[in-house]
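Example 3.2
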Amino acid sequence: MGLTTNPPLIFPLADKIDWRTDPDSITFLKTHHEGRYATKVWLAGRKEPIHHSRETLWKPYIAKASGIESLFEIIQRAAQQPRLTAIRGAVAERSVKEKPVNKRYHEHAEKSAPDIEDAARLWLMLDIDSKPEPEDFDWRIDPRRAAIWAAKSYLPSAFRKSAFVYQYSSSAGFKPGLRLHYWFWLEEPLNCPEVKRILTRSRSCVDLSLYNPVQPHYTSWPILRGLADPIAGMREGIVV
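Structure, written as tokens:
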């Protein structure tokens, strides 16, 4: 059984081991402890959020997409799971039955072998952070229009005419500037070094730190306690 039903889209890795390194698969990690979240928690009266970003042990899950539309369905489902985050890497074969796994990629002489390895994927997420907002309309009222505007303004030229899924980060609306995640479906799978090489050549303003097999690709809506969401529309959408 997946995290949710009707229909399940994200499954415990142990149920779908054969998906582990497939290019169209997405590895998700779920915090090992309840009450620890893979998103920001914003509280009324506080300027800074609570964020449990330093979690080490995670429960592995997996999903499989077939293109940009099904990728959007998976992102929508993941957005409702505050303990869940995606990574580009795959759980190593020796670790697929471990519960939980460590979110570590590099070898260390004094530690056990890492549970995560690099994998070539057909999906790609680009992240823009703290970019200037449009001046002729309020992006919080029309977040879809703003996502299209920002894609044309800030993304590498090769991606500006491509279909994409957009998702506002858990800081968007609470901190200044546009903060967006863009998800794309590629023509061929790429691993982390290949993505870094391509984006470095493009001289883009996207965050290259994402392209590490264990770097979290945050997917959940923020948790709001005593606050209303300042973004009037949905935090994610699809543009085709």
